[in-house]
Structure formats: structure tokens, C-alpha cells
From TrEMBL:
SUPFAM superfamilies according to UniProt: Phosphoglycerate mutase-like
Protein name: Multiple inositol polyphosphate phosphatase 1
InterPro entries: His_Pase_clade-2, His_PPase_superfam, Histidine_acid_Pase_euk
Taxonomy, superkingdom: Eukaryota
One GO molecular-function entry: inositol phosphate phosphatase activity
Family to which the UniProt record says this protein belongs: Belongs to the histidine acid phosphatase family. MINPP1 subfamily.
Gene Ontology CC, one term: plasma membrane
Length: 481
């Protein structure tokens, strides 16, 4: 299957896709298992609470630091919370309402709600903002982090101790504010919640190479443009089969062009509104799993391990994380007081930021894949259901997704139990608050910082951002996820 998504082997992939669908649809039924929740299968449109479920299915270990280790610094890279569809997408959904009503009035087998269906966003002319549910996700994440790491967050807030940054896209900045309100709740004098003011720093929207590196990386834009038709052709095969399945079940005239919009509507209703008994109910379990997989293939090919440029362009962010840890280690060795050291750098951005960062850390890799990415080889796409796979958009980058690098200072004891002269610094990684072992550190959870730097970070830093990307601004704009 090597080179599976390359243009030359597309006919082979199409044949495989047809074979997969033949097997899947042969056993399709109209009744769904009671424990199947479509909200856990929306790829990157999955809400955070359901994304944690997917993450724990991959790694649910309970790992505590050694007794001699104390967390001293946190790097957080997070996606914004659950958001509304963008203005462009709202217009698309509103325009689709007539199509749904047409189906509802053309077939006796169509669900009754379709006959007079109206878009939940009808009349809305703006969108893309973080929803109240997304604000709650970020607020509660901040509270949980403070509870989990009281040693790190015990100092009074100061911008030099707790750096909070976000992109200039409003939903990311709002997520940073909601997170900070949860993190520092009760620490100030403002209002009945005793909130306190804190700063959120953003780079220029057009020159943010730390959190929006994908926007100004010309090489990535060209790679993505070349890959999109290949992915679209793959997905089209599935849309044809699912359209045929829907037409057979409900006897209305659904086409392959209708499926992407109908699936997008399902994802938005389920994630943003908790509505699962309308557009989502039109799809069977098998439909949903295949549509989810098709989305996951797209994310893999355009944002993940499918091409090395997808994640290597994130080296400014990786360098920034490394530098923050090295500053803390140097300050510790120089004897600086703990209450004067940087405690955390907390960043809020997009799926296009979080996904490359997880790839740079080597997360969600099958055995043997680590050496491939160190050699800059593209990885094969995740296998289709019912085969198990590590790469799931619902775990890699749901709304509110976050990767966290926690630096520990560990006292090295000699045989008498006394401190030795050297202190040992170790790194632990969390994804969506779930501890994950690092393949680049021999599968350990507490990786010595020197090993983490040499085996995980430095192999990616043999290039500079400038050498990877032409900094000529791309004319094409993309909506961040």
C-alpha cells in the first residue's frame, strides 16, 4: 500500500474503496446499536468531551510521576473550543434547506421532519465564533489544569510567569480568555467570581509563524493544493455509494454531490446543537464510520503524516517550546528562585496548529512509523473500518484538542539517599489530558530532557522554516478548523 494516495495509484485505491464498500453495505441495516453515538465519530468536528472518549480508547493509562519528580513548567498547545459554522458554511446550509424539503415531500419513506425543515442558522449572517459550550470547555480545562498542577499554578498571576498567547482569529482569542478565567478563577477582585485581568498576546495575523505557520508556508500551500484533488477523488467514491444507499432506503433523489453537505450538516447539528435525530439519523452506523474515515484520510493527507511538509513547517512552534523549557532549566541551574521562573506558556490556535505539533512529537504512530517520519517519508493513510486505527480525527484534533509538554525536576539520589550534584529534568506528554508514551523516547512516559531534545526535537530542526517554506504570501485563504 506504499504511496497509496499518490496520483499514479488512484485507480487501485478506487478499486479497493469499491471492495470495502461492497463488504460494508452488504451488512448494512437500518437499526443502530444502542451504544453507538454519532457524536464520537465526527472526525475533527467532534466536541471535546467526546474527543476525550476517543483518546482514552487509544491510551487510558494512569501514570503518576516518580516521587522524586516535581512539575515545574507546562507548554500547552490547544485548539479553540466548539464553534459555530463559519459565515460561508451557514450560507451553504441555509441554501440546502430547500433540497431537504424537496426530499421530504417527494417520498413517503422520508422522515417527517424533512417536509418543513428549516436551517437552525436561518437568518444568521455571521458565524465561526466559539459557542458557549466551547467557552465552557476551555474554562473547565483551565480549572482542571490548576487542580492537577497546584505546584505550577500556585504563584499569583504575572505575565512573565504565565504567558498566554493566541492567534488573532477571534475564536482562538476567546478560547484563551475562557481558559484564563477558569485557570485564575477566585484569584482576583473582579465581580462575584473574584476574577482577575490577564493578558493574551497575539502575533500579526499575516506573520504569525508560531501558531499560524501554515498560512505563510508557500511550499505547504502548493503541496496541499496538489493533494486536494486526490483526496476529493477518494471521497467521491464513498459519496457515490452512500448516495445510492440513501436513495434505496428512503426513495428520494439524493446524488453524490448532496452527501458532503448532508454530512457537514450532521456534524454541525451533532457537535454544536446536540441534535442527532435529524440529518445524522439518515446515515447508518456503517455510513458514519466510512464518512468519518474519509475525513480522517483527508486530515492525514493534508495536515498530518501524509506529507512531511505538513508538520515540519511547525518547527517555529517546536523551537519555541524547546526554548521555553531550556530557559527554565538554565534558571533552575543558576539558582533562580522558583517564584521568579516562567511557569507555563499556554497557546490557543487551530487544528492546523495542533495536528502538526502532535506529529512533531511523534504521537499516533504505528510501530515502525517513527523511523519513516525521521526519514521524511510520507505515511500510508489509516486503514478503513472495521480495522482498528490510531489516527482518528476525533482523538487527534477534536474541538478543544490540546497537547501538553510537562517539564519535571527530579532529584537524583545516590545510594545513601542524599541528593547528588546534578538534577535530572524529565518530560511527560499529555494529549487531551491523557498521558501518552513517547515513541521517540523508547515508549517511556517520563523522558529525560536530554533524550527528548536529541531524539524527538533536534531531528526536526535540521531545517529552518525559511528553507522549508517560501515566505511569499499565498493568495489563497483557508478557513481554519
Amino acid at each position: 500500500m506504499k504511496g497509496l494516495l499518490g496520483k499514479k495509484v488512484l485507480p487501485v485505491f478506487a478499486l479497493v474503496a469499491v471492495t470495502v464498500f461492497a463488504a460494508v453495505f452488504a451488512c448494512t441495516t437500518s437499526s443502530e446499536p444502542e451504544n453507538f453515538d454519532v457524536r464520537e465519530h465526527l472526525s475533527t468536528a467532534t466536541r471535546y468531551e467526546h474527543g476525550i472518549v476517543s483518546t482514552k480508547q487509544l491510551s487510558n493509562e494512569s501514570v503518576e510521576p516518580p516521587p522524586s519528580c516535581l512539575p515545574i513548567h507546562i507548554n500547552l498547545v490547544a485548539r479553540h473550543g466548539t464553534r459555530a459554522p463559519t459565515k460561508k458554511r451557514i450560507k451553504q446550509i441555509n441554501g440546502f434547506a430547500e433540497r431537504i424539503r424537496e426530499w421530504g415531500n417527494s417520498s413517503l419513506l422520508a422522515p417527517r421532519w424533512m417536509k418543513d425543515w428549516k436551517s437552525p442558522w436561518d437568518g444568521r449572517i455571521v458565524g465561526g465564533e466559539v459557542l458557549p459550550k466551547g467557552e465552557e470547555e476551555m474554562f473547565e480545562l483551565g480549572q482542571r489544569l490548576r487542580t492537577r498542577y497546584p505546584e505550577v499554578f500556585k504563584e499569583p498571576y504575572h505575565p512573565d510567569l504565565y504567558m498566554i498567547s493566541a492567534t488573532q482569529v477571534p475564536r482562538s482569542a476567546a478560547s484563551a480568555v475562557a481558559f484564563g478565567m477558569g485557570l485564575f478563577a477566585g484569584e482576583g477582585t473582579l465581580g462575584p467570581g473574584y476574577h482577575r485581568a490577564f493578558s493574551v498576546i497575539s502575533d500579526s495575523r499575516t506573520h504569525d509563524t508560531h501558531l499560524r505557520f501554515y498560512e505563510s508556508c508557500r511550499a505547504y500551500q502548493e503541496s496541499k493544493a496538489n493533494a486536494m484533488p486526490v483526496v476529493a477523488a477518494i471521497q467521491e467514491d464513498f459519496h457515490i455509494h452512500i448516495a445510492s444507499s440513501l436513495k434505496e432506503r428512503y426513495l428520494f433523489n439524493v446524488t453524490k454531490e448532496d452527501i458532503p453537505t448532508l454530512w457537514f450538516l450532521c456534524k454541525q447539528e451533532a457537535a454544536a446543537l446536540d441534535i442527532v435525530d435529524r440529518s445524522c439519523s439518515l446515515f447508518t452506523k456503517e455510513d458514519v464510520e466510512m464518512l468519518e474515515w474519509a475525513d480522517d484520510v483527508e486530515v492525514h493527507k493534508l495536515k498530518g503524516y501524509g506529507e512531511s511538509i505538513n508538520y515540519r513547517m511547525g518547527i517555529p512552534l517546536l523551537t519555541n517550546v524547546l526554548n521555553s523549557m531550556e530557559r527554565v532549566i538554565a534558571a533552575s541551574k543558576d539558582g533562580h528562585p522558583w517564584n521568579a521562573m516562567e511557569k507555563g506558556h499556554l497557546r490557543f490556535a487551530h487544528a492546523e496548529t495542533v495536528i502538526p505539533f502532535t506529529c512533531l512529537l511523534g504521537l499516533f504512530l504505528d510501530e515502525g512509523d517513527l523511523q519513516k517520519i525521521l526519514m521524511e517519508a510520507p505515511l500510508e493513510p489509516p486503514p478503513p473500518p472495521p480495522k482498528p486505527r490510531l489516527w482518528r480525527g476525533s482523538a487527534v484534533a477534536p474541538y478543544g484538542a490540546n497537547s501538553m509538554v510537562v517539564l519535571h525536576k527530579c532529584s537524583s539520589l545516590d545510594k545513601t539517599g542524599s541528593d547528588t550534584e546534578d538534577d535530572d529534568f524529565r518530560v511527560q506528554i499529555f494529549h487531551n489530558e491523557v498521558p501518552v508514551a513517547l515513541p521517540g523516547c523508547n515508549g517511556t512516559h517520563f523522558c529525560p530532557f536530554k533524550v527528548f531534545k536529541e531524539q524527538v526535537i533536534l531531528p526536526h530542526l535540521k531545517y529552518s522554516y525559511d528553507s522549508l517554506c517560501s515566505l511569499q504570501k499565498s493568495e489563497e485563504k483557508h478557513d481554519e478548523l
